[in-house]
Amino acid sequence: MTTAAEAIQQKVNEANDKIADLTDGINRGLESLNAKLQVTYTEQKKLKWTPPSLLRSLQAAIDSSALIGATVKFKASLGAGTRPRAGQKTDALTLGIGLSAKAQAKIALGLSIGVGFSASAAIGLKLAASLKAALSKTNDVNRYLLAFNAAARLKAGAKGTLAPGIKLDLGPVNKSLRALNDELSTCQRHADAASQGQRLDPITAELRQPRVGAWFCDIEADAIAKTTGKVRFKLDDLEFVATVLDANSGTDGNRSKIRVVAGNGNLTKTVSRSYSASTGVKVSVVVRDILKDCGEHLSDLSDADTLDVSLARWHIPESTAQTALTRLAEQTGASWRVLRDGTVWFGTETWPEVEPSGEITQQNWQEGHVELASETPDMVPGTVFQGQKIEQVTHRYGVSLRTEIRTSSAGSAFAGLFKSRQHEIDYSREYPCKVVTQHADGTLQLLPDDAVMRSAGLDHVPIRYGIPGLKATIASGARCHLSFAAGDPSRPFVGSWEYDPEKVVLNSILDGAQSLARVGDLITAGGPGLICTLMPVTLVGAPPNNAIAAGMPCMISFSALPATTPAQQVPLYGAISTGIPKFQG
Q1: In which residue ranges of the chain is pLDDT below 70?
Q2: Which pLDDT tens digit goes with each residue over 177-194?
């Protein structure tokens, strides 16, 4: 019978095998890409008609490919996440996140293995796919070069040299090279994310971890060379993964002073998306899209129940990724923060009680803080200590370690670090919009005038006419005003119009199926089958055949039977004379 420990080890071995296969595939892809580009450059350089600009472009592609390989440096594992291992601790402080006992038990049983493990594998898969696409783009370059060289050979003749003034069309070749460079840039982004980062050895460090948002750390280290990009560093036995903020870093004598922010440092990038009401959307989709668009990655320790919640619709106006995550968390009663391994956790707080190591040196819960002489910097926010909910933790690392614990936070670490434009959306006001189209169910696709609200537009927005049962046909280009019920971004509606009779046509009232008439409108009288007969009064000088003429007196009769004597039968018309005075149109 397999024991729990053996089951966990089996899962670990399977995961490690998959990582090894993925690593081999990426290394093979890099080798193949480098070899193809080098052969292309070498062969093209032999041809006398090759312009220097073309050789420079090919060399740039080779350099980009080499940089990708230098960035990744794959050996045994992928990414910045902690490799799964049997018997690893699963308590809240070891994992660096407040977890309930139930969640800890699941991890201990091997149902979830390793912080950020699946995120790391996902990054590797994206890199492998990008490398495959880059190989395809390289084949395109070679195909267009083949056509270019054939045309050049015809014009060059036996000597292989073009006469002065003869120009060749490099358009298709240059276009294919631009496409290749774009794909290589994508590869580089994925390589940066997959990279474990260069090793950084702090002499001193001050690490600030908020309950909501990304942590950051001010580090002093020996100034050997300028440190940029992704880094990993240890405080005691705990490893952290972050990205250097160049604007906040530099050297002071023989020391480097470096500020790093958790993960890839991309949470201040702008994102925007819109999800329609016809299909709905799960929180997991929204979170992953936000992180994908900005270049960060979701932790596999995120709360599955929270991520499984469905939203009827959701709109992300143009805003930073951190703002979008915070707004989504507030809507779903959840929270989010960046873990030590640089991945983003999203879930519902469980506030587990913890007992960090070390002695209390200062205690002032009245002002909301306490200081510890810690043995290790493992205390994290989102936990409960001595009955107090912890919002922010600061570790000061050097000759000794001091940990400051606070019950209130100044907000996201990013809020104080960056002065980039923040987009705060006022969901209590109306936003003028243009109608893009009206769907079969009567809802609208809108394009708001406001640049921040515009995003990718809003789709399947319902109309509130103000009177039950009203329906209208709305043409593209109609102007309306967008509102949000109770200021909730998940409940948009159109409530008023900039009226244009050619673009907004009222179809029905109270769900009626018949057309309405107004006072003065023409009607037919007498009911179905009624015949109105006009019989001329015979007088001297009457028209022949008793024809009806102007000024001719006639006798009028009504009957359901046709007339038997010469007469003219005509319909009877009338006009509506009264109506509801308060309802006009």
Answers
A1: 1-20, 73-123, 193-196, 223-225, 277-279, 409-424, 455-457, 506-517, 524-531, 538-549, 559-573, 577, 579-585
A2: 999 999 998 888 778 766
329 in Cβ contact with 287 (< 8 Å): no
| Strands, sheet with 444-448, edge to edge from the N-terminal-most edge strand | 458-461, 444-448, 431-438, 479-484, 492-498
CATH of domain 431-508: 2.40.50.230
**Rounded Cα distance, 424 and 323, in Å:** 8
Tokens of 313: 């619709």
Q: Which of 41, 64, 34 has the alpha carbon at shortest distance from 178?
A: 64
Query: Within a 13 Å sphere around the CA of 290, how many CA atoms are in the beta-carbon half?
Result: 30
In this structure, is the dihedral angle defined by the CA atoms of residues 404, 408, 412 and 418, taken in order, positive or negative? negative
What is the distance between the alpha carbons of residues 111 and 300, in angstroms, rounded to a whole number?
A: 11
Which CATH superfamily hosts domain 270-347?
Answer: Baseplate protein-like domains (3.55.50.10)
The structural domains of the chain, with segments of one domain joined by +, span 4-194, 270-347, 431-508, 522-575
Phi-psi region of 232 (alpha: psi -120 to 50; beta: other; left: phi over 0): beta
Residue for token pair 């009177």: 467
Question: Could you tell me the two tokens for 177?
Answer: 């090279």
pLDDT at 463: 92
Provide the residue type at 31 as one letter.
E
Q: Which helix (H) or strand (E) holds 256?
A: strand 255-262
Among 101, 153, 121, 92, which Cα is nearest to 17's?
121
114: tokens are: 């390793």
Buried b / exposed e over 257-277, threshold 16 CB at 10 Å, is ebbbbbbbbbbbbbbbbbbbb
**pTM of this prediction exceeds 0.90:** no
CA–CA separation, 297 and 290 (whole Å) = 9
